[in-house]
User: Fold this.
Amino acid sequence: MGTKQIYEEWELVTALRSKDDQAFGYLYDHYSGALYSVVKQVVGDTEISNDVLQETFVNIWRKIELYDETKGRLFTWMLNIARNAAIDKTRSKGFQQSSKLQPISETDGTYATVKPGIDDYGLKRLLFKLKEEHRLLIDLSYYQGYTHEQISKALAIPLGTVKTRIRTALSQLRTLLQ
Amino acid sequence: MNVKEYIQSGVVESYVLGVATEAERQEFEQLCATNPEIVEARNAFERSLEVQLMQDAIQPPAFLKEKIQLLIGSAGSETYQPEIIEEAPVRRMNVWKLVAAACFIALLGVGYWAYTSNEKYNDAVARQSSIEKELQQKNTQLAALEQDAGMMQKPGIKMAALKGTPNAPQALTTVFWDSTSKDVYLLVNNLPQAASDKQYQLWALLDGKPIDLGMLELQQNRLLVKMKNVQNAQAFAITLEPKGGSPAPTMTAMYVSGEL
Assistant:
């Protein structure tokens, strides 16, 4: 599959909607690395990351009709598909048995999954620049997919505080990205 | 509502990263429809996020691409079907034929994939077992060679170099005699190939009398050939005898000899 052609984003979307194999090849070559990196940050394990990445691209191909360019960029849409697939995988029984992840309900005040380690690349590396309380909330909501309510209950922090902290943390993340 | 404050509140990032609540999400989408500024802020964050993540890309293993392409090869035809059914209900029969054909093609694809993967798997298994067998053989050979090498270095081993006679000036063999166990081992450095009806026979010489030490039967991948024991010897010699050996050496057919 030749992928020498360079697509503008709208061209790529149009080609994908007409089920153009070549466009898919380009999409994969261009974005698989970035999505793989995010998937690995959520699931860690390499073989599981492979499964998740595979599921992600199959879903992108199947659901391209659902992509709405007025709601955001193609990459953002794909990123959310990848992240959701990865989080779903961490919720599966097989994954929980094979990993050290603790359910959030068992955590007390000492909860801290975000430790510096081999996983600090990409967004995670930026996360370490945030304050501990912010970092924890981003990890729980972004990387582990917990809702604000779940986080509020588990950490015994008022829901309003969870919301404010997540927002504050995220606006700092934006500054860090620039 | 103050648009600037709203943009600064972190809601843009929550929305883009998919951590906004359902209510936040709906509100954000409504506001985007009427506020180009918010859309602009969203776009800017999306781009910087994309730039960052593209920089942090990690190449997935190469085989994945092919696997995914195979998967979507059949997925593509699946997603096309419902549209055709909706648009042309009158041609129901044809549609079902198409569906059946598509399923059949998908099945062929899957079948082919399963077949080739299985082939590859079988090949790999066969290759592995032949490699294992070879490794085992080599290990056995190595153990034998190590045993032979250890033998030559044992304390109490005496060595006699048997040099070629005018029959075969280039010939050379070495006898190792264990003065404790009286075992005799022969190392063939160089001996002419014996005719098919002939065989080399090793003799020990003690006080001018030859003692038969057996026929030389070369084993592959061994350094040393174990011969018959001898209580004592002053010299050794090898003669070429009719197959099975002779009771006494044929002196004219002596190939090598040497003193202990």
Q: What stands out?
A: Residues 63-130 of chain B form one domain.
